[in-house]
Write a structure and sequence with these properties.
This protein is an alpha/beta fold. It contains 12 helices and 16 strands.
Length: about 400
């Protein structure tokens, strides 16, 4: 039998059919593998398992009793999973279904963000494809659970159905609502920019007043700190700089209200003149400054670098939308106050910008350090003047 030992776990591949005819032989082979790997905990990969009878289940049960704790059985097909579930083995083993493989070839791109891209699979479903190793399966499954919590709290978002493989990447399949992304709408209807911007501001106010039980979602200050940590791990923040930036995060008051943290037009769908979220994996609880500064990074910083033109939205349309959003959200037309708001949001946004440059595989190495040095200089020049708003 094929097997592999790593980190004191020996993974054994189960293949074909296991029934009364070959169960004794399978048992002997597993015993031999465990004897060769004394002290290693067995785990089973059932990706190639087509069927298992009660005789095969008794073999697995024997080794489960020997170990005295649940054993992991991964990549289980739907058919085999039904057998495990019917017999109660899902209560005794850590049974994990295999992920179906799908293709996005020829699928319409609906939106794109820092963690992945969203494609239309068919008239009823969309898929969010996560970028490579930056998003492992454990993190994605946590995100699915978070999406469920957010939906049940009344935040307008789509329903996640399934986790899948897309080539070497992971993806999550969501319901397809009869809508286009706000990015597409802005590109198609620039004459409606004012209307869309007002909708965004109104939605933000509603989200930022939606309360959760404390601890129901992550503390958004921890996300801010994680951005700092990732940049430090990449060698771009010293221990003293990390200390100063952690204090900047700790000085932001905690709130038990919803924070999206990636609220850009590619992550928003427009359905019946209502905004519906399709990406809430970075969501948490906290102060609105963490949401607004993330938006600044998109509407101002990224737009200046030509990001919006990738989706046929002009920079001046982003400029106008951002001006309306700020004025309506903060209920002000005072240009001096607006300038100060933008300065503060720019400062906080630098942390996420630096993390993006430091960890993105698409940034050429020769451009990475100069861009980070410039951003760091701006950040630390204003760090002592930053404070939460509103």
């Amino acid at each position: 039998m094929r097997h592999e030992t790593k980190d004191e776990v020996v993974t054994i591949w189960l293949e074909g059919r296991i029934d009364t005819n070959n169960a004794p032989q399978i048992e002997q082979e597993i015993e031999g593998i465990l004897a060769e790997n004394e002290g290693a905990k067995p785990a089973f990969d059932a990706g190639g398992l087509e069927y298992i009878s009660s005789a095969g289940l008794r073999v697995l049960m024997k080794f489960r009793k020997q170990i005295g704790e649940p054993l992991e059985v991964t990549n289980v097909s739907s058919e085999v999973y039904s057998i495990f579930e019917t017999t109660g083995f899902t209560d005794l083993f850590e049974v994990k279904k295999g992920l179906r493989q799908i293709s996005i070839e020829g699928c319409e791109l609906l939106g794109e963000g820092g963690n992945g891209a969203v494609y239309r699979l068919d008239p009823e479903t969309i898929v969010k494809v996560y970028y490579g190793t930056r998003n492992d399966l454990e993190k994605i499954n946590r995100n699915r659970e978070l999406t469920k919590k957010v939906f049940l709290q009344g935040v307008p978002t789509t329903i996640a159905f399934d986790t899948v493989k897309v080539g070497e990447d992971y993806g999550v399949v969501y319901e397809m609502i009869d809508a286009k992304s706000l990015m597409q709408e802005m590109a198609s209807h620039p004459e409606k920019i004012d209307h869309y911007a007002n909708m965004i501001a109104d939605t933000l106010k509603k989200l930022h007043s939606t309360e959760f039980e404390e601890g129901a979602l992550p503390d958004s200050r921890d996300t801010f700190k994680n951005d700092v940590k990732e940049s430090a791990n990449a060698g771009y923040f010293s221990p003293e700089e990390v200390k100063r930036l952690y204090k900047l995060a700790d000085d932001i008051p905690y709130r038990n209200t919803f924070i999206h943290q990636d609220f850009h037009p590619g992550n928003l769908m427009l359905q019946n003149d209502e905004i519906v979220l399709i990406d809430v994996e970075d969501a948490g609880l906290g102060h609105p400054v963490l949401d607004l500064s993330s938006m600044y990074l998109v509407y101002v910083t990224a737009a200046e670098k030509g990001w919006s033109t990738k989706f046929n939205v002009k920079k001046e349309d982003f400029d106008r939308a951002w001006d309306i959003i700020i004025k309506k959200y903060f209920d002000t037309t005072d240009e001096k106050k607006i300038t100060e708001i933008n300065r503060i949001l720019c400062g906080y946004s630098m942390v996420k910008l630096i993390r993006g440059i430091a960890t993105s595989p698409t940034v050429p190495d020769e451009h990475r350090k100069p861009a980070i040095d410039q951003a760091k200089e701006g950040l630390f020049k204003m760090i002592d003047m930053l404070h939460p708003i509103p």
